[in-house]
Amino acid sequence: MREATGHGPPKLPLMHIVRYRRGQDGTPGVGVRDDGVVRELPVPSVAALLRERVADLRALLGAPGDVVEDARLLAPVDGATEVWAAGVTYLRSREARMEESSEADIYGRVYEAARPELFFKSAAWRVVVDGEPVAIRADSGLDVPEPELALVVNRFGEIAGYLVCNDMSSRAIEGENPLYLPQAKVYAGACALSAGIRPVWEVNGADLAVAVRVTRDGVAVWSGTTSTARLKRPFAELVDYLFRADHFPDGAVLSTGTGLAPAMDFTLQPADVVTIAIDGIGELTNPVVVGKEHFEHQRPGIEVESRP
Ligand code: DO4
Ligand code: MG
């Protein structure tokens, strides 16, 4: 894991699909970043890539165009792509929820049930990327990052790639009443994704090490590791349930749930720095802020600008 400073360019030595803004004229674009070099792709958006089948996406990525100098990486989703998340897919998440909740039984039941817990997490334009702040709600007193592997799914329901996701959560609000889940999970600065999509044909997502570290004044105050091999449900099952009763014309990101949760006496504080690393996928580092004020500049169709 690189130093969790929350600053500096994301380290992406492997091949990733990226969205970027050119330093020179500010024009946005989509490209392939390989060994630190971004080359442009002849498409207007990541959403356009997710309208293609995986075989066609692979062919497109095989022939990138010119090198883009001084590309600043943006959140890896745009258009009508939605971010969804699965819950209670690891034993550790089940245990942690049962400990925090006034309704412990429902978490035990959903862990065992055929139908997974799936919930809407974010519109594309609200997603923050590596280096930008994530938030804790001003009206919550118990807050955690949730380090998760996210599936990038095209409009046909095929897994096209992987991302690192931080599914920021208010344990206080969810724990008070599970019907408050949307408020615990969906608010300004609650969804962070790593900058680059790892193409599915380049990496096997089934047994990847997931690591989290939270630093406070440079000192680690919580860290943990797990593996995607501990996920209770196959990726295909999660995607199947997501696509059962809806269309995703620009594809979807489906975060697969957390296998890491701190003890109940831990809560995030402003100025903490959260770093999540998933082997073969990437890293995601975000400083923590409190409240919605930090996200006033976010607008549909306008990417989140980096803050100094
Ligand atoms: O049940 C509530 C949410 C669970 C979740 O986000 C997770 O397990 O990762
Ligand atoms: Mg989660």
UniProtKB/TrEMBL annotation:
Q: Name one GO molecular function term.
A: hydrolase activity
Q: Where is the Fumarylacetoacetase-like C-terminal domain?
A: 114-289
- Which keywords accompany this UniProt record? Hydrolase, Metal-binding
| SUPFAM superfamilies the UniProt entry points to | FAH
- One Pfam assignment: FAA_hydrolase
Can you name the source organism?
A: Asanoa iriomotensis
PANTHER family referenced in this protein's UniProt entry, alphabetically: 2-DEHYDRO-3-DEOXY-D-ARABINONATE DEHYDRATASE, FUMARYLACETOACETATE HYDROLASE DOMAIN-CONTAINING PROTEIN 2A-RELATED
User: What family classification does the UniProt entry report for this protein?
Assistant: Belongs to the FAH family.
InterPro entries noted in UniProt = FAH (IPR051121), Fumarylacetoacetase-like_C (IPR011234), Fumarylacetoacetase_C_sf (IPR036663)
What's the protein here called? Fumarylacetoacetate (FAA) hydrolase
